[in-house]
Amino acid sequence: MSGRPVKRSLTLKGHRTSVSLEDEFWRAFREIAQEKDQPINALAADIDVTRDPDTGLASAIRVYILNWYRDRD
After folding, report:
1. I want to staple 25 with a disulfide (CB 3.0 to 4.6 A). Which of 21, 36, 41, 51 is the partner?
2. Are 44 and 12 in contact (CB under 8 A)?
3. What secondary structure does DSSP assign to 9-73, as a single string?
4. Dihedral through CA 64, CA 40, CA 48, CA 36, nearest 10?
């Protein structure tokens, strides 16, 4: 695991934003979006609207990924 976050741009409701996640999280995030047959930007937008305003988007994505894989077990 590299541990160094990688910054990538996402578009949420027509608005560009940058999110920093470790490669492993980016990979898992893309896999989940593909499994849900949903573009990664749409999945990020879904997470964005449901997150607590005090929680950063990157943190909300990490928790979403964690819960996704936990719920599958």
Report:
1. 21
2. yes
3. EEEETTEEEEEEEEHHHHHHHHHHHHHTT--HHHHHHHHHHHS-TTS-HHHHHHHHHHHHHHHH-
4. -50
Output the six-digit token pair for 22.
């470790």
User: What is the rounded CA–CA span in Å between residue 36 and residue 59?
Assistant: 20
The length of the chain, given as a count of residues: 73
Residue of 18, 23, 31, 28 lying closest to 58 (CA atoms): 18
Other residues' Cβ atoms within 10 Å of the Cβ of residue 28: 19
Residue 18's domain comprises 5-72
